Amino acid sequence: MVRALLFTLLLAGSRLTFAQQTVSAGAPPASPTRVILWADSAAHNISPAELMRTYAPIETKVDALPPAKRKEVTDALMEHSNEKNTAVESQGSQPADGFFYNVTELFAANGRADWIIISPMGEPNRKALDELLRRLTVFYQTDRYAKPMASPYSNEYFTNFGRPREKRAVRTGDSTISTLEAAAATTRPDTVKYVYFNQLDLKNVPDVVYRFPNLEELDLSKNGLVKLPARLTADLPQLRRLSVLFNQIGNDSVFITPNKHLLALTLQGNKLTRIPTSVRNARNLESLWMGNNKLAELNVKAIKRLKHLYDLNLYNAGLTSLPKQIRKLKHVRVLDLYYNELTTLPKQIGNMRRLEQLAVAHNKLTSLPPQLARLRRLDTLYAHHNPLATLPTAFNRFKAIRLLDLSYNRLSAFPDQLVDLKTLESVDLSGNNIQVLPTSVTQLSSLKHLFLRSNPVTRDDAKIGPYAKVIDQLEAQNTAVYY
């Protein structure tokens, strides 16, 4: 579990220049952090096996820590990773012809990186590889530190630099076109409803798409588009779903004409710092995905009049705060804020009365507003991987909550508020610092799943520990307890 967590935390990059100095096997370098390829380890008189004996895997150390300390370590590694990602990104654009690579970081006990050893997948462009090594050299030679531990440790993960080429996903089926050749050749353009032009290295939207008057879905994802032309919504009157996922479209290059037919728009992974104002012209839009951009703010004004918008995805959008105006998104039912930099939520979020699912996991929230309990339709709340130490007293007022994920926070006690939630079916409190399992938890009559892994309360064999009777009673009530 910890390995998977660390993989998630460190999902972005590290690499450095080749070492020229020969060192004894397993010995830390005399100079600042050295970076080599695994393939060059023999040339540097380095034994990978001996290195791995000297630098124990971090997960073996983290698993042995108390939950609070474990959280501290993972937070420190996340901060180190974020600094590293920022350093790589701030030095210029990343290559379109990117690649995946494996990283092994070897840290001294004081948290300073001794070695960075990389292994690229496939045969990456040499220029791109050298550029990555150069950027990471800049980062590590500023004497960056990760988390100090009692002894040297290693951390290993898999990530990418730029956008790695991948095998194109070609979709087939009735009324479906997936190649430019087929689009030009068809003699029955009126029968085509689905066009999938993903991963074709397109720089512009090809004119051939306008051959299809009954087109309902257009996928232009993973190309090199820099503009979303107005003609797409003006000349395709049946277009319902449009995706330009992972392109190069900027703020002033999204043109949507007034229409009532577009229902779903995916703008994820572009170069947007705000929601394009022309989005408001899609009057019946139901789903808007803006994740994996770098939004300077959430400009609610662009979407507040969309009365049918129920699904708003802002995953990894770079948001550091939410505006009070979020209360004007009265029709949103699903709000995804995973992997942002939020430290607080505005109390006005409690005015989003139709909200049913809220995801604020992997942020920096130290508290949740009590106004969330006003959301009488909220049935799912994901708030895991935050530094939450307590919950608002008002949380006992939820009327429809079924799933609550508070794992990997800093809770030191089972929240009393949960006992009053009669609709609650699944609770995840894994990875906290919970010391006691109160008998009152058996009052949760609808509870089907209770996750308590990686807490002091379940460190020993829970079935013979002091809370065995509580667990037995829960299981007798058909509640599955995971410890």
UniProtKB/TrEMBL annotation:
Keyword Repeat: yes
Signal peptide: 1-19
Keyword Signal: yes
Domain Disease resistance R13L4/SHOC-2-like LRR: 293-383
GO CC annotations, alphabetized: cytoplasm
InterPro entries reported for this sequence: Leu-rich_rpt, Leu-rich_rpt_typical-subtyp, LRR_dom_sf, LRR_domain-containing, LRR_R13L4/SHOC2-like
UniProt KW keywords: Leucine-rich repeat, Repeat, Signal
Domain of life: Bacteria
This protein's name: Leucine-rich repeat-containing protein 40
